[in-house]
Every structure is written in structure tokens, then in C-alpha cells.
């Protein structure tokens, strides 16, 4: 990684150079899409991906309230309106059964999230989108390398987005993200938008602007580091699955909801998230035993102060609200040793028994 970084310093090419171009190809291949467009962050990948898919002012985008704030923020940045539907409590993803009730003549797109590293139900979502002529942009920030029916996330929808934030399954040494697509038109528009809307409008495309765009380019240092780490991401995701199996085995029989990996999916366990009513007490007991845990996410977005203008209130999305009050993510990263996994299991078992 250090030598990859140093070679960037020597090359003098610092933004969207050869490493970014190769990374786009390599990540697109891993995720099963034709094209990749490297940008500054996962958030920008959403903004640019949504814009390239045709979402703009006044459009409605159906999405989940139980996700990281960027999913909603990206819709708002475009002057479009997030319309929430509740989640399926078995996998915390958008519940397709609620979508059709929320479609209006302003609905432009669906924005499902592959939360915690497990694919949303892309088969059913595609049927709904087809029936109503909607675009689908998937927020895959937590799901690089995951699969649905044997295909990577980039094979589904009009756009899928990734984040290379350092804590993600493929993380850089700073910010980064990518929009994936199989559409040449979306690809070209996204490439233009990330670079101030620069494009070929019948003259030398340098300093010729076809769109009002963004300044959102991946830097070569991140791209070089990400290319080195990308070679390991499959094996890291496998290790996460191995850890998840040990956790599931070791925590069976406790009054605790464990994650369910649907048979049609390859879950990459960005998070290993359990659920119980006394969530905060469990977190405190784990902390007293030296085990870290975290809540993703403590507040569903329809109750966040910044989004009160959307007009939602408590009770509107009961499954999302319940999940936000009950979920807890246990330590999950490929570097966890076999012994540490056993220590976590023992600590959770002892803590839950003290609570019941
Ligand atoms: C991390 C994340 C993002 C945003 O990615 P950044 O690179 O931090 O901008 C968006 N959506 C989800 C679900 C995420 O987890």
C-alpha cells in the first residue's frame, strides 16, 4: 500500500489518473456492472447517480427511513422529495410490499439500500419498477461484493453506488465512492457531472460545459490504495462470513434476534446486527467487558430534525422505529482472531443471561 502511494507521488498525476481508470474497471467487474464512475464519496455517488438516472427538482423518490443520512440527503440535494416506506424487520431493508401504495404520478425512482451488506430484494423491486416505469438507484455503500441470485449488486437497477469511506468493506485512506451502471447514457452523464459537467458539445471538450455539474473526482492516492486492497476484498468478505457463522452458532438459543441471510443472497456482513429490547443495557454490559458495539442507526430519518419539513411523525414507520430502538452491531472485521470471536460470543452470552 505504501509503495502504491509513493508511486502516485512520483507520477505527478493526482486526480482521475490511470489508477482511478483501472479501479473503475476492476470494481465494475467485481460488482457485475459494465461501467464505474469514481467520485469523491459515497454521498456524491448517490447525488450524481440519481441525477444521471434523471432525478431532479420536484420528483419523488421512494426510499427507506432506516439508513445512513446520506441516502435521504442525496435526494434532497437534487431538489427531489424522499418518500419513505417502512422496512422488512427480517432483514431491515425496504419492504417491497409497501411500495406500490406510495407511488404517485411524481414518483421517478426507487432508492433501496443494501443495509448491513445484504441485498434488498432486487427481483421483486425490478418487477415493481418495470410495472410503473420507475428507475432504481441502489445505495450499495455497505455491500461491495455481495450478491443476489448469483450476481453482484452492479447487475441490478439503473445505478448502484459504493462508498470507500475507511470503515466500509473496501475502504480507502480517506473519502471516495463510485457509481456503477450498465447504461452507456448514464455512464457518460455521470462522468460529465463529476467533472463540472464538462463534455463534448461539438468543440474541444476541455472548458466546454454541457451540464451544470459537480467537482467530485477520486484522487489517485485513494485509487492506488483501493486497488491494492481490492485484491483482498473477496477473501475479507469470506472471513466476515466465517465470523458470522461462528456468532450465529454461538449465540443460538438466546432471547436475541440474529441476522438472517436470505438463501438467494450472499451477505457480506458489513455489520453483524442483533436485536433485543434491552439493547442499551446489553451495550453497557459488553462495554464493561471490554467489547465495543455500535448502533446503526439510533434514529430513523423521518424523525431527524433536519428532515422535519418532510412532515412525517412518530408512528409513521413502526418497523423502522422499533429497529432503531433495538438493534446493536457486534464487532465485525476480517482481522478479528478466532479467539476474539469466542471472547465476544462468551461476553454476549453472559451479558444477555444477566439481563433475562
Ligand atoms: C457510508 C454510507 C453512505 C455515504 O458514503 P460516504 O462515502 O460516507 O459519503 C451512504 N449510504 C450508506 C448506507 C452508507 O453506509
Question: How does this model look, in words?
Answer:
This protein has 356 residues and is α/β, with parallel strands linked by helices. The chain has 2 domains: 2-230, Type I PLP-dependent aspartate aminotransferase-like (Major domain) (Aspartate Aminotransferase, domain 2); 233-355, Aspartate Aminotransferase, domain 1 (Alpha-Beta Complex). 37% of the residues lie in helices and 13% in strands. The chain is built from 11 helices and 12 strands. It has a 7-stranded mixed sheet, sandwiched between helices. A 3-stranded antiparallel sheet has the order 7-6-10, with no helix packed on it. The chain has a two-stranded antiparallel sheet with strand order 11-12. It starts with a helix and ends with a helix. Bound molecules: pyridoxal-5'-phosphate. Pyridoxal-5'-phosphate binds next to helix 3 and helix 4. Pyridoxal-5'-phosphate is lined by residues 41-43, 67-68, 70-71, 113, 139, 141-142, 163, 165, 175, 177.
What is the CA-atom radius of gyration, in angstroms? Answer: 21 Å
CATH architectural grouping of the largest domain = 3-Layer(aba) Sandwich
- CATH class annotation of the largest domain: Alpha Beta
Catalogue the unreliable spans. none
Q: What spatial order of strands do you see in the largest sheet?
A: 1-9-8-5-4-2-3
* Hetero ligands: pyridoxal-5'-phosphate
Helix/strand class? alpha/beta
Question: On the 0-100 scale, what is the average pLDDT?
Answer: 96
Oligomer state of the chains in this structure: single chain
Beta-strand fraction estimate:
5-15%
Shape: globular
Beta-strand segment tally: 12
Biggest sheet descriptor = 7 strands, mixed
Put simply, the count of helices is 11
End-to-end distance: 47 Å
Number of domains: 2
Amino acid at each position: 500500500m505504501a509503495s502504491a502511494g509513493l508511486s502516485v507521488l512520483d507520477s505527478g498525476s493526482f486526480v482521475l489518473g490511470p489508477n482511478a481508470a483501472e479501479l473503475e474497471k476492476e470494481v465494475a467487474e467485481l460488482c457485475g456492472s459494465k461501467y464505474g464512475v469514481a467520485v469523491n464519496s459515497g454521498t456524491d455517488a448517490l447525488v450524481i447517480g440519481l441525477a444521471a438516472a434523471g432525478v431532479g427538482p420536484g420528483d419523488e423518490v421512494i426510499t427507506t427511513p432506516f439508513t445512513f443520512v446520506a441516502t435521504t440527503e442525496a435526494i434532497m440535494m437534487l431538489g427531489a422529495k424522499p418518500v419513505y416506506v417502512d422496512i422488512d424487520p427480517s432483514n431491515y431493508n425496504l419492504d417491497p410490499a409497501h411500495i406500490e401504495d406510495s407511488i404517485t404520478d411524481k414518483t421517478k425512482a426507487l432508492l433501496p439500500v443494501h443495509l448491513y451488506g445484504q441485498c434488498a430484494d432486487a427481483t421483486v423491486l425490478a418487477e415493481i419498477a418495470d410495472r410503473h416505469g420507475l428507475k432504481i438507484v441502489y445505495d450499495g455503500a455497505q455491500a461491495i461484493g455481495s450478491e443476489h441470485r448469483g450476481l453482484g449488486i452492479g447487475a441490478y437497477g439503473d445505478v448502484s453506488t459504493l462508498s470507500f469511506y475507511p470503515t466500509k468493506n473496501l475502504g480507502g485512506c480517506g473519502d471516495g465512492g463510485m457509481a456503477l451502471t450498465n447504461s452507456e447514457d448514464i455512464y457518460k452523464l455521470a462522468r460529465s457531472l463529476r467533472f463540472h459537467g464538462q463534455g463534448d458539445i461539438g468543440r474541444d471538450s476541455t472548458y466546454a460545459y454541457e451540464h451544470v455539474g459537480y467537482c467530485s473526482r477520486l484522487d489517485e492516492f485513494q485509487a492506488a490504495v483501493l486497488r491494492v486492497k481490492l485484491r483482498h476484498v473477496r477473501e475479507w468478505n469470506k472471513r466476515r462470513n466465517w465470523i458470522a457463522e461462528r456468532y450465529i452458532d454461538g449465540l443460538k438459543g438466546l432471547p436475541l434476534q440474529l441476522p438472517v441471510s436470505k438463501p438467494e443472497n450472499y451477505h457480506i456482513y458489513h455489520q453483524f446486527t442483533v436485536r433485543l429490547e434491552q439493547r442499551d443495557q446489553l451495550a453497557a454490559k459488553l462495554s464493561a467487558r471490554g467489547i465495543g458495539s455500535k448502533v446503526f442507526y439510533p434514529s430513523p430519518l423521518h424523525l431527524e430534525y433536519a428532515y422535519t419539513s418532510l412532515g412525517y411523525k412518530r408512528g409513521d414507520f413502526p418497523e423502522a422505529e422499533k429497529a432503531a430502538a433495538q438493534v446493536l452491531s457486534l464487532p465485525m472485521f476480517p482481522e478479528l482472531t478466532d479467539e476474539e470471536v469466542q471472547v465476544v460470543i462468551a461476553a454476549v452470552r453472559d451479558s444477555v443471561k444477566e439481563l433475562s
